[in-house]
Design a protein that fits this description.
By secondary structure, the chain is α/β, with parallel strands linked by helices. The chain is 45% helix and 17% strand. The termini are far apart.
Length: 428
C-alpha cells in the first residue's frame, strides 16, 4: 500500500497486473481500486474532490481502526474504496448537477438526526421558556432602572440607617448574584441574609493578654471625648477587678495635651476619683522619663493626647514623634464619635494611620440614631472596633463592642435575636 501525503493509498485489485505509481493515475489499470482514509465519509469525499475533481467512482466504504500499539490506543477512521479514470474537464452544468445531488444526499442522510433534535428541542422548550422569562424579568428591571421589590426595600432600609453608597451597592450586588428569583420574593429571608452579611462585615478587636505595664494611648480629633474615655477605661478596670475579687490594678496617667484649656485639670479630677496619679509631659523625653520611673510599679499607663483636626497633618505629625518612645510598646486606639459623617470618618482614619492604631473606640453612641456610617467605614477600611461609649458618667457608660450590639441598633430591620446571638457569640 502507498500513501501519497494526502491520506490516499492504493492497493491491487485481484484483476490488476500493474502497480500504483502515484496520485496522477499514470501507470495503473482502469479497474485498479484505491483507498482513502479520513475522519469520516465527507472528509474522504473532500480529499477525493481536491485531487480528482469528479473523475472518480466510489466502490465501497467502511470504518477502520488505525494507530495505537499492540492494539491499544487505536482510533476510528473512515476508509473509502474508489477507482479513477482519465482526467476530464467538468462542465458548469455537470458541476452544478453533482453538487446538487451531493447536497440532497447529505440532507436525506441527516433527516433522522434532525427529527431527533427537534424532539429534544420540544422537551426542553418549556423549561427554557421558564428560565428565559425569569432572566428577562431581572434584565428588564435592571435596564429600566427598576429593581425587585426586596432589593428596593433593602436599599431603603440601608439608606435610612445611613450606610454609605459603596456599602449599599455591595449588599445589593450580593443579593442579585447569590439569591435566586424565588428567594428574592421572600423578604423575610432576604432581610435575614442582609442582617447576617452586615454582622459578618463588623470586626471586633479580640481580647489578648498584655505585658505589664500596659501602655494605652488614645488619639483622635478634638471634641470626641478622649479624656473621659480614658477615665471610663481606667474605672472599668478597677471595678472589674473588684467584681472578680482580684487586686485592683495600679494605674498612672500622662497628659501631653497643651492645646485645650483645662485638659490637665480635667484628667487630674478623674485621677483623684480613681486613685490614679497624673503627670504632665511636654516632650518625648518627658514621656520616656515618666515611663522608666514607674514601669516597675504600675500595671497600666494611660496617655491622653490633644485633639487636632484630621486635616492638621503638621501637628498630628509632631504629636506622633512625641509618642515615639523606645520601649513602651503601646496599644494606640483611634477615637471618633458615632455622630461623625462617613466622609469625616474616612478622613480621620487616613490622617491618623501613621500612629499604627490597633483598634477604634466609638464615642457618643447615644447621640445618634443611625450607625450605618460607622459600620460602612470600618468595613471599607478594614478596621476593628474595641469599645463603645455613651454619656458622660464615669466610670461606667463604656462597654466592649460586639456584633450583636451593632445589629440591635439597626433601624426598622426585623432582628432574630436568638439567631444573631448564636451566629455572633460575644467573646468571654
Amino acid at each position: 500500500m502507498y500513501n501519497n501525503g494526502f491520506g490516499l493509498s492504493a492497493e491491487k485489485d485481484q484483476k490488476s497486473v500493474s502497480s500504483y505509481s502515484g496520485i496522477t493515475g499514470y501507470g495503473r489499470t482502469d479497474d485498479e481500486i484505491q483507498t482513502i482514509i479520513g475522519k469520516d465519509f465527507e472528509d474522504c469525499k473532500q480529499k477525493l474532490f481536491k485531487t480528482y475533481g469528479y473523475n472518480y467512482d466510489i466502490r465501497g466504504q467502511r470504518p477502520v481502526l488505525k494507530g495505537g500499539f499492540l492494539g491499544f490506543g487505536q482510533r476510528e477512521y473512515y476508509e473509502v474504496r474508489f477507482t479513477i479514470g482519465q482526467k476530464k474537464t467538468v462542465s458548469p452544468q455537470e458541476s452544478f448537477q453533482k453538487s446538487r445531488d451531493e447536497l440532497l444526499n447529505k440532507v436525506s442522510g441527516n433527516v433522522q438526526q434532525s427529527v431527533q433534535l427537534a424532539n429534544l428541542d420540544k422537551k426542553l422548550e418549556q423549561s427554557l421558556k421558564d428560565i428565559e422569562s425569569k432572566l428577562k424579568t431581572i434584565a428588564d428591571a435592571t435596564s429600566s432602572g427598576d429593581k425587585p421589590i426586596a432589593i428596593q426595600k433593602v436599599e431603603e432600609l440601608l439608606q435610612e440607617n445611613e450606610f454609605t453608597f459603596a456599602y449599599i451597592n455591595k449588599i445589593t450586588t450580593r443579593l442579585r448574584s447569590e439569591l435566586s428569583v424565588d428567594e428574592l420574593d421572600d423578604f423575610d429571608f432576604v432581610q435575614n441574609k442582609v442582617v447576617d452579611w452586615i454582622g459578618e462585615s463588623i470586626r471586633i478587636t479580640p481580647r489578648v493578654p498584655h505585658k505589664y505595664p500596659h501602655v494605652i494611648i488614645l488619639v483622635g480629633p478634638t471634641g470626641v471625648g478622649k479624656t473621659t474615655t480614658i477615665a471610663k477605661l481606667a474605672g472599668t478596670m478597677i471595678l472589674d477587678a473588684r467584681t472578680d475579687g482580684q487586686t485592683e490594678p495600679k494605674i498612672r496617667m500622662i497628659t501631653i495635651d497643651h492645646t485645650r484649656v483645662g485638659a490637665e485639670e480635667q484628667l487630674r479630677r478623674y485621677g483623684d476619683l480613681l486613685g490614679a496619679d497624673v503627670d504632665k509631659a511636654e516632650s518625648a523625653d518627658d514621656v520616656k522619663k515618666i515611663f522608666d520611673t514607674y514601669k516597675d510599679s504600675i500595671d497600666v499607663l494611660f496617655i491622653d493626647t490633644p485633639g487636632y483636626s484630621p486635616n492638621d497633618s503638621e501637628n498630628i505629625g509632631k504629636m506622633r514623634k512625641m509618642l515615639e518612645v523606645k520601649g513602651i510598646h503601646p496599644d494606640v486606639y483611634l477615637t471618633f464619635t458615632a455622630t461623625a459623617k462617613a466622609r469625616d470618618m474616612n478622613s480621620i482614619i487616613q490622617n491618623y494611620e501613621p500612629f499604627n492604631f490597633s483598634s477604634v473606640i466609638i464615642t457618643k453612641w447615644d447621640e445618634t440614631s443611625a450607625i450605618g456610617n460607622v459600620i460602612s467605614v470600618l468595613s471599607e477600611k478594614g478596621k476593628t472596633v474595641s469599645y463603645i461609649t455613651d454619656g458622660q458618667q464615669v466610670p461606667r457608660k463604656i462597654e466592649r463592642a460586639s456584633v450583636v450590639k451593632f445589629l440591635l441598633n439597626l433601624n426598622d430591620f426585623t432582628i432574630n435575636r436568638e439567631h444573631i446571638d448564636e451566629k455572633f457569640p460575644e467573646e468571654k
